Amino acid sequence: MTALGALIRRDIRIALRVGGGALIGVLFFLTVVVLMPFALGPDLKLLARLGPAILWLGALLASLLTLDRLFTADHEDGSLDLIAMARVPMELSCAAKALAHWLAAGLPLIVATPVLGLLLNLDIHASATVALTLLAGTPALTFTGMIGAALAVTLHRGGLLLAVLVLPLSIPVLIFGVAASDAAIAGPQSFGAPFAILCALSLVSFVVGPIAAAATLRHGLD
Amino acid sequence: MRLSGRGVRCVRGGREVFSGLDFSAGAGELLAVTGRNGSGKTSLLRLIAGLLAPAGGSIELEGGEAELSLAEQAHYLGHRDALKPALSVLENLRFWREFLGGELFDAGGSLKAVGLDHAANLPAAYLSAGQRRRLSVARLISVHRPIWLMDEPTAALDAAGQGLLAALMRDHLARGGLIVAATHGPLGLEARELRIGGAS
User: CB distance from A49 to chain B under 8 Å?
Assistant: First the structure.
């Protein structure tokens, strides 16, 4: 446990220091959401109707933005070799790294959501609902995205490839995330069903993501 | 404790690097791996560390801790330093101590032993190549592992640093440790030589 705690603390510390990239995601999220009303025009009803989808898309792209560095940075400086040789199972190390990435890059997005909701004419109840669905859904984005990040190590220069590999996996999360938000804001469908599926997607990714990423990395070290 | 390889064969990128390699080293012994560039010295170290899979043959450790694998009982000092430029010298060392675990020695003492105690709070980004190397060596002496796998350990070190490293390696061997080092130059220690790929 101390080993995993140390890994999580290290990754968060690096992400929060200058050039670490934790705030880049939030800035990108802010840019996407701020630009959207200018693109769509001053139709407040339209903005409010599209709001949850815009917030979800922005959060999805922002969380992908820094994900490709999840393993490549450690691979380039040799840390990944030592992590692979350590007494901690590789699967748990991968899970710890993903958790650290989510805490440093995912959580700020969720915190920023209620503020950005104002720009999209969402009331406080709607913004809070979107933030809640992001809280349930973004871990799934990080933990499935981790598989693509591990492949990026094996294939070298996988930045753009990551998006191609990971975006199809994140489509279900996007569908149920937006469905749950819409259901809570506009009705008449129930909020519970899509939200439960969203939580289930996250729980499945907690198991599948680390195992798949560790297997990929083991074959990819050279 | 005895580390031995039998008929080890290594293939990288579809090309055979070496084959039929036999070696053996016991506790307190230094195995110096020599050979021209590209003969597979680094590949052999990575095979022993479990970072590459052998295409044939086997590498075994007898007499180590039964429930731990060979890689889990080894330190790997590679070309790359495994240091994070954003973290300070002490933070880098502390992280590896906590993450690698096992029997630990004092972090401050380890930094002093490699002559970096004055730079403990400096970000690793500002270290020179030789200082980065010294910090990697501090990892080796601050976390106990019976086997040290060292790839060109003297690279980038000045004369004082090389002397210091030789002394630390001698201490490790005296405590019953085992070292496999890929090297071009003399290490200043008595060693059993393993030559890969015939005469240069």
Answer: no
